[in-house]
Design goal:
- This protein is of the alpha/beta class and 440 residues long.
- It folds into two domains: 86-394, Thiamin diphosphate (ThDP)-binding fold, Pyr/PP domains (Rossmann fold, 3-Layer(aba) Sandwich); 400-437, no CATH class.
- It has 13 helices and eight strands.
- The strands form two sheets. The protein has a six-stranded parallel sheet, sandwiched between helices. Strands 5-6 form a two-stranded antiparallel sheet.
- Strand 7, helix 9 (298-315) and strand 8 form a beta-alpha-beta unit.
- The protein is globular.
- Bound molecules: thiamine diphosphate (TPP) and magnesium ion.
- Thiamine diphosphate is lined by residues 154, 202-204, 231-235, 260, 262, 264-266, 327, 331.
Length: 440
């Protein structure tokens, strides 16, 4: 990683960069013809431009791009699960810590089984969350259930920790009759209105301006709710990210921008994605309070998100959290990451700096968890995932007509055309599809 991972004594957000402004406005000075300019010595002149509060200088100098470079990485726990600075320990109860751990490991187990299921041709596609479990669970645990979540697609742990049941994850991935989307979306495009989790949509960064709009609505209605918006470091290069950040800052919206910087955007490494100091460095440019945290430290993520939430509501301000982590799995089942990164690199993160093992060390250090408990939990959670998967496989696929009947009260012509063409196709090639799997 480019920036040195230094432990910091305190949690602090970077403020927007502000140089000292003019001492005071001295009245308009006219420069047009016929008007006499007031006399000044050049030292006395102060800039009056409306677009910046700044001073004049007389030395030609370009600002170095990394004027704020190597933004430090806030952490609470070291890799052995020891608290670095006791005053930063969030003092989460044993019961709550076990809940964090169980969500992280259950997600890991679900990922393994659904990944295998795709490899065996049982589902069409899958994306794992390996290595990023701490960013999901640490952030969502710090929020209220009423806070609204806009995800990208690699945040299944957020939904899991909020209580989304395994059979609903499975129903979505299998596109069966229990899937709220009735199989019209690719796997991993979850959504749940009751859990305030907006349905995932794949076009990158579209969630960012949408999240800001929702946060603006919260502000206008004084709901004491925040919006959290997750996205990857690659997605931060999209135009929508800029639009979202700038609207959030200028409209003063209670939104937490949560960037998972996992090192890659499919095959594009961060070294090709940007030239500045990551994503946190952009915050001050927008006037957004920003922090970089160790995303593999669930407590650092928790503290930063909790404080961002408190202040976002108290001050009606956006906050930016850049969580440094690593995507251990391939981008998706359509990717083979061995083509662009070494096995050694992946192994380092898997074996030496994993958010699950770090939390496990912390629990073991306190005698809250031992090998026996680990074994029995792994067995139990695997059984629960397998049962949910078998149930999802048994369920039928939704009736084709139903795919077209629940969105529009009057069906638009192009949707009607799709329906006719799909029905014709099924009639013609029906024997190639396991039609007994469809609801009659
Ligand atoms: C607008 C748009 N462009 C391109 C894609 C194809 N695409 C899907 S995921 C992805 C990489 C995103 O990387 P990042 O934001 O870092 O998220 P990560 O996959 O690392 O979690 C790309 C380019 C897309 N879905 N939408
Ligand atoms: Mg990424």
């Amino acid at each position: 990683m480019a920036a040195a991972a230094v432990g910091r004594a305190g949690l602090g957000f970077l403020r927007g960069l502000r140089l000292p402004g003019p001492a005071g406005v001295r009245g308009l000075r006219a420069g047009g013809e016929g008007l006499r300019q007031q006399e000044f010595t050049s030292l006395e002149e102060k800039p009056q431009f409306p677009g910046a509060s700044a001073v004049f200088i007389d030395k030609l100098e370009f600002i170095q791009p990394n004027v704020i470079s190597g933004i430090p990485i806030y952490r609470v726990m070291d890799r052995q699960g020891q608290i670095v600075n006791p005053s930063e320990d969030p003092q989460i109860s044993q019961e709550e810590v076990l809940k964090l751990y169980k969500s992280m490991t259950l997600l890991n187990t679900m990922d393994r089984i659904l990944y295998e299921s795709q490899r065996q041709g049982r589902i069409s596609f899958y994306m794992t969350n390996y290595g990023e479990e701490g960013t999901h669970v640490g952030s969502i645990a710090a929020l209220d259930d009423a806070d609204l979540v806009f995800g990208q697609y690699r945040e299944a742990g957020v939904l899991m920790h909020r209580g989304y049941p395994l059979d609903m994850f499975m129903a979505q991935c299998y596109g069966n009759t229990s899937d709220p989307g009735k199989g019209r979306q690719m796997p991993v495009h979850y959504g749940c209105k009751d859990l305030n989790f907006v349905t995932i949509s794949s076009p990158l960064a579209t969630q960012i301006p949408q999240a800001v709009g929702a946060a603006y609505a919260f502000k206008r209605t004084n709901t004491n709710r925040v919006v959290i918006c997750y996205f990857g470091e690659g997605t931060s290069s999209e135009g929508d990210a800029h639009a979202g950040f700038n609207f959030a800052a200028t409209l003063e919206c209670p939104v937490i921008f949560f960037c998972r910087n996992n090192g890659y955007a499919i095959s594009t490494p961060t070294s090709e994605q940007y030239r500045g100091d990551g994503i946190a460095a952009r915050g001050p440019g927008y006037g957004i309070q920003s922090i970089r945290v160790d995303g593999n430290d669930v407590f650092a993520v928790y503290n930063a998100t909790k404080e961002a939430r408190r202040r976002a509501i108290a001050e009606n301000q956006p906050f930016l959290i850049e969580a440094m982590t690593y995507r251990i799995g391939h981008h998706s089942t359509s990717d083979d990451s061995s083509a662009y990164r070494s096995v050694d690199e992946v192994n380092y993160w898997d074996k030496q700096d994993h958010p699950i093992s770090r939390l496990r060390h912390y629990m073991a250090n306190r005698n809250w968890w031992d090998e026996e408990q680990e074994k029995s939990w792994r067995k139990k959670s695997r059984k629960r995932v397998m049962e949910a998967l078998e149930e999802a496989e048994r369920k039928l696929k939704p009736k084709v007509q139903l795919l077209f009947s629940d969105v529009y009260s009057e069906m638009p012509w192009h949707i009607a055309k799709q329906q006719t063409s799909l029905e014709r196709h099924l009639k013609q090639y029906g024997e190639h599809y396991p039609l007994d799997h469809f609801e009659k």
